[in-house]
Amino acid sequence: MVLIPIFIGMILRHRYQHIILLAAVLLWGASCSPTAETKQVVLKKVERVVEEVSNVSNPLDLELNNGEKWLVDTEMHVGILNIKNQLANFQSKDLVDYQLLGDRVGDQIKIIRASDTMKGQAHQEFHKLLQPFLELKDALVMATSVAEGKALVINIKAEIQTFYTYFQSK
Asked: How many domains, the chain?
């Protein structure tokens, strides 16, 4: 398939490589399928996933505070930690569980935003990080398959790692 090298190239340079890898695998799987209808369905899903990934802001725009991590309020850090704990051992074969997990992540994001007292550049950097959380949470709530839910959980976990790269509790 001609599209496979394109997806591999995207994987090498795109932050949300897990979703794109999943899309490439689905596309490859469809190419092995005997029906053209199946290929079209999978191709449409792949295009939707790639479009959603393209719309996610790039948290790589984050900057450190003169080479140091930004300090966040304890309450904000606890909110991130709560999300991390909710995702840590989450496994389900039920789509509704993934959607409900998205709601719980959203509840924590609301708590984080309500406790935000950061100012200046630290505030701006934190909101650069928070935007992908919001978008991934929304996508998780609206997930249409368990596979999509799993991919989104992986990407939320990646955002948590990004948090710990750029931020620490006071």
From this structure: 2
The C-alpha atoms of residue 117 and residue 60 are separated, in whole angstroms, by 23
Q: What SS3 string covers the chain? A: CCHHHHHHHHHHHCCCHHHHHHHHHHHHHHHCCCCHHHHHHHHHHHHHHHHHHHHCCCHHHCCCECCECEEECHHHHHHHHHHHHHHHCCCCCCHHHHHHHHHHHHHHHHHHHHCCCCCHHHHHHHHHHHHHHHHHHHHHHCCCCHHHHHHHHHHHHHHHHHHHHHEEEC
d(CA 117, CA 146): 37
pLDDT digits (tens, 9 = 90+) for 137-154: 999 999 999 999 999 999
- Which structural domain, as residue segments, surrounds residue 37? 3-55
Question: Could you read off the pLDDT of 30-83 as tens digits, one per residue?
Answer: 555 556 676 667 656 665 665 555 445 444 588 899 999 999 989 999 999 999
% of residues, the chain, pLDDT over 90:
54
pTM above threshold 0.85? no
99 and 149 assigned to the same domain: yes
The residues, ordered by sequence, that sit 6+ positions from 128 with a Cβ below 8 Å of its Cβ are: 57, 59, 61, 62
